[in-house]
User: What shape does this take?
Amino acid sequence: DSDSLNRLTLCAGVPWQLVVVIRAYCRYLLQTGLPFSQGYIAEVLAHHPTVARLLADLFVARFDPAIAPAQRTRLLARLDTRMIAALEAVEGSDEDRILRAFWNALAASLRTNAFQTNSSGQTKEYLSFKIESQQLRELPLPKPLYEVFVFSPRMEGVHLRMGLVARGGIRWSDRREDFRTEILGLMKAQNVKNTVIVPVGAKGGFVLKRTALEGREAQQAEVIACYQTLIRGLLDLTDNIVEDKVVAPAQLIRHDDDDPYLVVAADKGTATFSDIANALSAEYGFWLGDAFASGGSVGYDHKKMAITARGAWECVKRHFREAGVDIQRQAFMVAGIGDMAGDVFGNGMLQSPQIRLVAAFNHQHIFIDPEPDPAVSARERQRLFALPRSSWEDYSRKLISKGGGIFTRSSKSLSLSREAQTLLD
Assistant: This one.
C-alpha cells in the first residue's frame, strides 16, 4: 500500500515488511472502533519513532521462529521495560491511547503467519494474526474467545468465534469501514442459534479493496480470490491432526494451547463457495477434509434441498391455516427480504403458485410489483432461481405490473409511481 505509514522506514528504521505488520494492526484497530483516522495514527507513530520501532521489535521478538525460547523470554521482558519508559514520555492523551492500543494488540496476539513462506520460499502476499480478544481493553462487547484478522492490499477480513468448537459462515461484506461490527452482530445471532447444534457460534467476513471492476464475472473472480485469501489466512494459523496427534503449522510460534478445530459455512455472497474452501482444506491436508465447509458437491446443498426454507414454510402454512386460508389454492400477498439466488428466500418463493410477491429487497436492489399475476411471476421467479448468481436486476421488466420497477439501493433518491406509493401506503 502507498500511504503515510511508509515513512516509518525512514524516520524509525522499520523495515518495509514490518511496516506492513503495523499497517495491518492499524486497520484492525480501526475496525475495533479506535476513534482516529489512519492518517492521524500514522502521524502519531512518525512523531514517536522510538515507540514505532519498539512495536516492530516486539512483533519480531514474539513470533520469529529463529529466536530460542529462553532468549525470547528475556527479549520480551527487556522490550516491555523499554516500552513502559517510552510511553511515560508521551504527553498527549490521544497519542498515548493510540500507542497503548498498538502495544495491547501486539501483546494479545497469539499467532501470525508473518514468518511463514510459500512453496517458492517467499513471504506470503497476505498477513494474518490471531488475537485473544478478552485481553483487548478497548474491544466492544461481546468479546469473542479468539479472532483472526487477515490483511492484504486486495482485501481485509476477520473471523470471530466464541469458543474452541464453534460454527458459522463466511460473509462477503460491503461495509468496508466497519465490517467487524457487522460480523460481531452476526456472531451474536449465530451463538444463539447454535445452542441446538454445537456449543457456541462463530462468524467471518471480508471486504474487497479493489472495487473498480467491470462486469459481473470480473467481480466474481475477485470475490473468490479474496475469499481464498481469507481461508488461507485462517488455515495458516490452525493446528492440524495427523494420526490422532495435534500438529502445529510450520514456521509458527504459538502463545496458546492446541487449537485444531475450524469450520466455515456459506453465507451472503459465498453460498456457492463450499467446494472452493474444501479444495483449500485438501491443499493444506487439513484433518476435517471436505467437512471443513458444509455444502458443496459432497455435502448438503442448502439451495437444492431447500432445507431451511421448507421448515420456515411449514410455519407459514400453519399460520394461514389457522386464519382459514389455503395458500396453495388462494392467492395471498407477500413482501420479503432476499432474492431468488438465496437458499431461504429463493426456495420459499417457489413453494406456492398463489404467491403475489409485491415487494422485496436485498443488499443491492428494491423490487416492486403492485399487481402481479401469480402464474406469470411464479414462472419468472423459477427462471431467476435457476440462473446462476441472479439478482433482481435480472427480472424481466416486461412482466412487472404498471407502476412497478427495480430500484438500486445505492441511489440518492427514488421517484415512485402512484401505484407504488399506494402499495407502500
Remarks:
- The first strand starts at residue 109 and ends at 112.
